[in-house]
Design goal:
Aminopeptidase; 363 residues; single chain
C-alpha cells in the first residue's frame, strides 16, 4: 500500500530528467522513451511527457506517461495515446488508481475524444494462457470498473514471445527445437554470415522491409519514417542493426532496440534470395547472442498471434519464433478511456467504414 502523498502529473521538459525517471520505474518500455516521443513529434504527434512524483520530493518518480497527442482534422478534439505505458508499480493499487484517474482528467483537459493505454503488463503466459497473472487480472478488472473499454485498435502487438537469457549459449541452443538448431548450423555451413550494421545500412534495410511487406501482405509507412526512427534510436545508443549476407550481399536484416534489461527484435526484413540457406535462423541466433553480450536479461521477439490458430495472420511468424523456445506472453492489451462517447463512436465505428468506402471507390 502507498504510504506517500503523490502530486499530480507534471510536464517534463528535460530529456535527461525524463530518461533518469523512466529508468527507475517498473513496466517501462522503449516506446515510453524520450527518443520515441521526439520521433513521433516529427510525424504528426505532440509529445506530452508527464511525471508523477512524491509531493515532498519532486526527484522521486512514481509514474511516467509519455502521452502522445494528435489533433483530429477539422474538429476541436484530439486523441491521446500512451504507447506501452504508463510506467509505474502496478502492484501498488492506490498508485495505479490515482494514475488512471489523472489520465482521465488529462483526457478531459486536452479535449480528447479518448485516451488509449497499452501497459507492459502480462495477463497470462503460455499459448493457452495456462499461467494467469493475478496482477494482469486485477488491473483488467479495475479498468472495466472505471469504464475503460478494451480496444479493437491495439496499435502495438498485444502478445509477444520472450526468451530469458540467463543460460549460457550452449544451453540456449540445446533448449531450441531441433529443426531450428539444425537450420542455424545449416546457414553457417551454407555460407551465410552476419555482421553488425550502421546507419549507412538503413536504406538497404528499408528496401528489404518494403519487399517483406509486399511478400507478406502487410501495410507499412513511408520509407522516411523508418529511416528517421532507426537513426533516432541509433543516435540515442538504443539501436543495433544486424545484416545477414551471402557472398557479401545483404539478404536479411534486423533492427534491435535495447532498453533497460530488454532487447527487442522490433524490425525484421528479408529478401527472396537464398532463403534455402536459412539466413533468418542464423540472423536471429546472432541477435540473441548480441543481446546476451550486452547484458540483457530478456530477448523480446516482439509479436505473436492474438489467437494461436493457423488462420491467424501471424501464424507463420509464430511458427518461426516458436522454434527458439521462448515463452508466450499475453498482455492485457490496449484500453480506451472515452471522454466523448458520441465522437468516439463516430471515430471508431463510422469513420473507418467511410474511409474504406472511399478507398474502394478509388481503386
Amino acid at each position: 500500500m502507498s504510504t506517500y502523498r503523490a502530486s499530480t502529473f507534471k510536464r517534463e521538459t528535460a530529456p535527461t530528467a525524463w530518461e533518469q525517471a523512466l529508468a527507475q520505474l517498473p513496466h517501462a518500455h522503449a516506446l515510453q522513451s524520450w527518443t520515441w516521443g521526439a520521433f513521433k513529434a516529427r510525424w504528426g504527434w505532440q509529445m506530452l511527457p508527464s511525471l508523477l512524483t512524491i509531493a515532498e520530493n519532486s526527484w522521486q518518480p512514481l509514474a511516467a506517461a509519455m502521452i502522445l497527442k494528435r489533433q483530429v482534422p477539422r474538429l476541436p478534439f484530439s486523441i491521446l495515446y500512451v504507447p506501452r505505458g504508463p510506467a509505474l508499480n502496478y502492484n501498488d493499487r492506490p498508485l495505479r488508481t490515482q494514475v488512471l484517474a489523472q489520465l482521465e482528467k488529462i483526457a478531459r483537459q486536452e479535449r480528447a475524444i479518448f485516451i488509449k493505454i497499452d501497459p507492459e503488463v502480462a495477463l497470462a503466459w503460455g499459448v493457452e494462457s495456462e499461467r494467469p497473472s493475478p496482477l494482469g487480472s486485477s488491473l483488467r478488472k479495475e479498468l472495466i470498473q472505471r469504464g475503460w473499454r478494451f480496444s479493437a485498435d491495439q496499435i502495438q502487438f498485444r502478445n509477444t514471445v520472450e526468451l530469458p537469457l540467463e543460460m549460457d549459449e550452449e544451453s540456449l541452443l540445446a533448449a531450441m527445437h531441433s529443426k531450428t538448431r539444425y537450420n542455424i548450423r545449416l546457414a553457417a555451413r551454407k555460407g551465410i554470415t552476419v555482421r553488425p550494421g550502421a546507419p549507412a545500412d538503413f536504406p538497404t534495410i528499408a528496401n528489404m522491409y518494403q519487399e517483406t511487406a509486399v511478400r507478406d501482405n502487410f501495410t507499412i509507412r513511408p520509407t522516411a519514417y523508418y529511416l528517421d526512427a532507426w537513426q533516432s534510436f541509433y543516435d540515442a545508443g538504443m539501436a543495433q542493426p544486424l545484416l545477414a549476407e551471402f557472398e557479401g550481399n545483404p539478404i536479411a536484416a534486423v533492427v534491435l532496440i535495447r532498453f533497460g534489461a530488454r532487447v527487442i527484435y522490433m524490425y525484421g526484413a528479408s529478401t527472396e534470395k537464398e532463403r534455402s540457406r536459412m539466413p533468418n535462423h542464423l540472423l536471429q541466433w546472432e541477435a540473441i547472442r548480441w543481446a546476451k553480450g550486452q547484458g540483457a536479461a530478456v530477448y523480446d521477439f516482439w509479436g505473436a498471434p492474438n489467437d494461436f490458430v493457423e488462420t491467424d495472420s501471424m501464424w507463420g511468424v509464430w511458427r518461426f519464433k516458436q522454434g527458439f523456445n521462448g515463452d508466450v506472453v499475453r498482455h492485457i492489451g490496449a484500453w480506451d478511456y472515452v471522454a466523448r462517447p458520441f465522437w468516439y463512436w463516430l471515430y471508431t465505428a463510422v469513420m473507418p467504414k467511410y474511409l474504406h468506402l472511399l478507398r474502394t471507390k478509388n481503386l
